[in-house]
Specification:
Layout lengths: L6 E2 L12 E2 L6 E2 L19 E2 L2 E2 L2 E2 H5 L10 E3 L2 E3 L2 H12 L4 E2 L6 E2 L2 H12 L5 E2 L6 E2 L2 H12 L4 E2 L6 E2 L2 H12 L4 E2 L6 E2 L2 H12 L4 E2 L6 E2 L2 H12 L1
Antiparallel strand pairs: 1-6, 2-3, 4-5, 7-8, 9-10, 11-12, 13-14, 15-16, 17-18
């Protein structure tokens, strides 16, 4: 069949009602109404439509002109139907990885404006609405609270298959496995040292910057690592 005629070949029909349509190369079936915007598809795509008389060729003009061109007509992308163009654009970002909404306080970017607003409210405002009922700690994400709760339950579902150690989080297990493989993907750009995790690299970078974020509340001393502060605190409390 010539693509010049812009005829859309009928394939198959399933169900009843508004004559479900099938598009070549896609698994989903659609009604004529849902396929109003199929004009965006290439001429090679075919459409199936069942009428009582059997198969019928449907011209693209006939299909796209169905029910007029109202603003609220559905949009189609890769065989998936959306209530409007806005929803289709948002969904498309799951395929493209596009993150158009950037935080002006840090480097984080987001696919949705609401996600950016949530990030701004909780990360930069200091809001932490999720509170542990076992201790005083609070978190700005529910997932962080769930992760923290494992420190109380002692749950460690992630087991190393190289040794007997178990971990509460999969990311910690992943870092631990590098102690077996010797992999050190995080490299210092100031010297030749490499590290198994970004957190280890961040701590190391303080040896170059001189940053000491951990301060003793009993004296004026400051430390680059929390473990060094803990050791120091023993000099005050014995």
């Amino acid at each position: 069949m010539s693509s010049n005629s812009e005829e859309l070949r009928i394939l198959s029909v399933h169900g009843k009602g508004e004559y479900p349509l099938a598009v070549d190369g896609h698994d989903n079936l659609f009604t004529v109404f849902k396929l109003e915007t199929l004009s965006s598809l290439s001429a090679e795509h075919s459409v199936a439509k069942r009428l009582e008389g059997g198969e019928q060729l449907v011209h693209r003009e006939e299909l796209t002109g169905h029910r007029g061109g109202g603003k609220d007509r559905p949009a189609v992308l890769s065989g998936e139907c959306f209530p409007d163009k806005t929803n289709m654009v948002i969904h498309r970002r799951t395929h493209t990885g596009e993150k158009p909404y950037g935080c002006d306080q840090c480097t984080e970017r987001f696919k949705l404006k609401d996600s950016l607003k949530s990030h701004m409210r909780r990360t930069h405002s200091g809001e932490k609405p999720y509170r542990c009922d076992q201790c005083v700690k609070c978190y700005y994400r529910s997932s962080h609270l769930k992760r923290h709760m494992k420190t109380h339950s002692g749950e460690k579902p992630y087991r190393c298959d190289q040794c007997v150690k178990r971990f509460s989080r999969s990311c910690i297990l992943k870092e631990h496995l590098r102690t077996h493989s010797g992999e050190k993907p995080y490299r210092c750009n100031q010297c030749v040292k490499r590290f198994i995790s970004s957190s280890h690299l961040n701590v190391h970078m303080r040896t170059h910057s001189g940053e000491k974020p951990y301060r003793c509340n009993q004296c004026v001393k400051r430390f680059s690592q929390s473990s060094a502060l803990k050791r120091h605190m023993r000099t005050h409390y014995g």
